[in-house]
Structure formats: C-alpha cells, structure tokens
C-alpha cells in the first residue's frame, strides 16, 4: 500500500484533494502505534502525519502549547516538563496493550480523545483541546479555536474533531491548555476489598472536597491481593492534610498505607496503560464506561456469561475487561450488560477478523447513526478518510 507522508499542510491538502477526485480511500495514522484499534480501515493508500513534527507555539505563562500532529507525545511532555508543566489529562500509552512499536503522536491523542486516570479531576483530552487545524475530505484547510478557552455559539469543531478517529479530517496541528506540575503525588492504598466495597471507598473519596486525582481498584488473584488506590496531588502541606481526611473517611473499610515515589508512579502508569493485561496477548480487551456504582454489578453480570478478568479506573466509571479472543470475545454478554445497566463498551484489542465482524464501538440508535452519517457526509462527502474505522459503511 502506498503511504503518503506530507511535509506540510499544503501538501496534505493537495493529496487529499486528489484522493477525493479519484475516490482513493485513505487510512489516516501518525506513527501507526494504534493501527490495531478500531475496525480495520478499508483503504487504498495511507496518509501519515509522521513528517508533521515540532512544537509551533509554547507560552508557559499562558499555559498553552501547540504542536504539529505528528509530534511525538514524549517531545511535548519533555517540553512541558522543562517549564514544570504537564498535560492535565494524563494520556494513555496503548503500546503495551497492543504490542506496537514507534512513538505515539499528539495528533492521535486529540483524534482519539485519549485520557488517563486524572480524567476524573482534569477532564478528558477534549476538555483541554482548544484549537485544531485539519484538512477535510474535500482537501480544504480548516482552522478552529485558538489560544484561549472560550464559549462559542454554533458548531464547536474542536470538540467534534476530538474522538472522531480521523474520519472527519486529517489533523495537522493541535493546541492544548496545560497545567503546572504538582509538587507532590501521594497514594492511599487499601488492601483486601471486594469490588463493591472498593467502589464504595472510591465513591466516598471522590465525593469529598479533597480533590482526588486518581481512583482505581485492582482485584487480586485472591481477596488479600486486591489493591484499592486513591491519589492526591498538590502542595505538600495540602497533600498531608487531605490524606489524613481521606484516610478518616475510609478507615472503616480497612487499614491503609501511603505510597510515594517511583513505586507509586509505576503503579499509576500500569493503571493508565492497562499493563495489568499486557501479558495476556492471546486475549481480547474491552473498555467499558458506566456509572461508577454500577461497575461491580455490570462486571458480575458479564462474568456469568463469559470468563473474564478486570480492573476499575475513574472511581469505577471505567472498567477494563479481558475475555478469551474466541467466538464473539464476550460481545453478546458485554452488550447485554451495558443495555441492562447502562454503559458504552469499546473493543480495544482483538484479532482483525473479530474487529471486522463485531461492533467495535457501542452500537448507536438509528437517529444518532443518521446524525453521524450526516456529519461524515458534510466533512468527507467522498467517504475517503478512514472509511469504516468506527462504523461499517461510514
């Protein structure tokens, strides 16, 4: 397959414009680290942002950074760290789960709305995304947003592009609002809780005024191996006070320990990147968003119909589930559970044949699907950009 790697926005515009005229379907990617996510795109050629690199704007005093879409996330992180700042939404790195190589790009973070454990406090990537430049399916260059966060009337193209998976446009530049790095990170660890008691503890912490920035539960092979973790960040004096208060809130549920330093950071990275499942290369992985208090019931319902392993992030609102990559990979049990209890399930990892035959994303109601088709037709009338990557025929 021919892969185009434009060196600038104008070249990308020309390539897409010619593809639209010829009906050439394009697979959109950066460094291809997430090619195994979503439905396999049925494309004639590839269009990569790999050569669109570099930070184009960084104003530490204004807490704003802009970079071309093919810029490695690691470069953006280093640039911010030099000034004591960071991306607030803590984007996940999918490489360990997908077994891929290369450098994740900042454009993919925006296009796929990738967020990590801090989403419960800082919001998703789309909440920090304040500006985009992209080329639509006609080959037209579009700019939306800018250097400040503001309310707008009408269609918010910035938020629309976040999570569109390259189906509406080829991102060339993204602008994010950033935050100062916290002086201290500290994690409260509770051992031995079952799922329901763990989610109760996390809900109590999140419902408090103590600014929790991470809330996860990792069931163990037995009850004692289970870890419930609550993260607090900020100035050291503030963290000390809030830790004591949260400890008091959850003390009836079990004894607690305090984790700090590299060990605690590694633990949160394993939650962020779902490396709990990295050794299960022969299994499928699902990602389910639901109401936090419904998480344990949803998991129990799924486990009645399929052999599963799981853990919780976002206070129970995000459930990662691993199932055998056979048959429907547990799709029937998972979809039935989300219909009954509420939620949205995404198939993150599975063999290509399964991803071609199953709904990778939560099926949409007919009116919503009609709206989705209409938006796609408006931005990409020839249907050449990542066709079928999210939904068959779109």
From TrEMBL:
GO terms for molecular function: FAD binding; oxidoreductase activity. It comes from Microvirga aerophila. The keyword Flavoprotein applies. Residues 1-181 form the FAD-binding PCMH-type domain. InterPro entries: FAD-bd_oxidored_4_C, FAD-bd_PCMH, FAD-bd_PCMH-like_sf, FAD-bd_PCMH_sub2, FAD-linked_Oxase-like_C, Oxid_FAD_bind_N, Vanillyl_alc_oxidase_C-sub2. Its cofactor is FAD. Keywords: FAD, Flavoprotein, Oxidoreductase. This is 2-hydroxy-acid oxidase. It holds the Pfam family FAD_binding_4. NCBIfam families: PRK11282.1 (NF008439). SUPFAM superfamilies: FAD-binding/transporter-associated domain-like, FAD-linked oxidases, C-terminal domain. PANTHER family: D-LACTATE DEHYDROGENASE, GLYCOLATE OXIDASE SUBUNIT GLCE.
